[in-house]
Amino acid sequence: MSGLKWTFEVDGNDFTRAGEASSSLKKKLRALGVSPDIIRRVSIALYEGEINMVIHANGGTIDVEMTPDRIDMVLKDTGKGIPDIEQAMQAGWSTAADEVRSLGFGAGMGLPNMKKNTDEMRIESTVGVGTTVYMTIYIS
Amino acid sequence: MTPVEFADKYGLRVIETGCGEERQIEGAYCGDLLSMVMGRAKENDAFVTVMANVNTIAVAVLADVACVILCEGIHFDEMSLSRARQQEVCVLESDEPTFRIALRLGKELGLC
Ligand SMILES: Nc1ncnc2c1ncn2[C@@H]1O[C@H](COP(=O)(O)OP(=O)(O)OP(=O)(O)O)[C@@H](O)[C@H]1O
Ligand SMILES: [Mg+2]
After folding, report:
1. B26 lies in which domain range?
2. Which H/E stretch holds residue A28?
3. Which CATH number goes with the domain that contains B89?
4. Which of A10, A91, A93, B65 has the highest local Cβ count within 10 Å?
5. pTM of the predicted protein model
6. Residue A19 lies in domain
7. How many domains is chain A built from?
8. Measured from the CA of A133, which atom of ligand 1 is nearest?
9. Which residues pair with A6 in a beta bridge?
10. Count of domains in chain B?
11. How far is CA B71 from CA A20, A132, B80, B82, B86, in A?
12. What does the pLDDT profile of chain B (112 residues) look like in tens digits?
């Protein structure tokens, strides 16, 4: 079944714009009357993924599809990839550079937050090729 | 208590009013690591921090907190403030340390 679809381009060089996709999706979901709890989970998961695309890769594309029973988000970048996904998923693991740590990133909590706030999450990554994160939140 | 009432009572500066006259502070979270805040802050918390950049505002919006309280006399830059204005985020500033603001919030919330 095909539902509502949105695509967001994420600029890999601009920290100040990171968060735009999640803010924009949040507004759309609110206008559609999606429940606040679902909106909050979508916003948090998408923001963390979006920031990772900026600080660990060089931006990319986010595709969101919403049907009456679920919201699917696909975040695709062509960055350096994740060598050990299991390690990356651990709370506290971070390879963030000092300059982004000084902006408040690098707690190593982004991927765990994404996992916690979604019903399904899967990462596909190839070193030197890029990373794709698939996240699903059920609405009902 | 609303963020603006809290500011008036304890002498914090209201930098952006946003929705700070309507929302009630129902809890509080102190932190500077943004994804920690993202994971732990609850809706309608006062978010107390020393991290002053545009991503602080983004986290405040997405975590749906009642206000941002910037401590230690630190200031937001104009870009962050204009983002706060657009998104109706209430921003307060204080010269006091995070712990002291936390104590004041704790008192108002009946936690200490
Ligand atoms: N899109 C990505 N491309 C390459 N590496 C990534 C990507 N996303 C995450 N990583 C790797 O996984 C690690 C853990 O990510 P996570 O989001 O949990 O923490 P962080 O981004 O380092 O810090 P925080 O999210 O707490 O600010 C990162 O430090 C990085 O090494
Ligand atoms: Mg992260």
Report:
1. 3-108
2. helix A20-31
3. 3.40.1390.20
4. B65
5. 0.94
6. 4-138
7. 1
8. 1
9. A64
10. 1
11. 26, 38, 16, 19, 22
12. 999 999 999 999 999 999 999 999 999 999 999 999 999 999 999 999 999 999 999 999 999 999 999 999 999 999 999 999 999 999 999 999 999 999 999 999 999 9
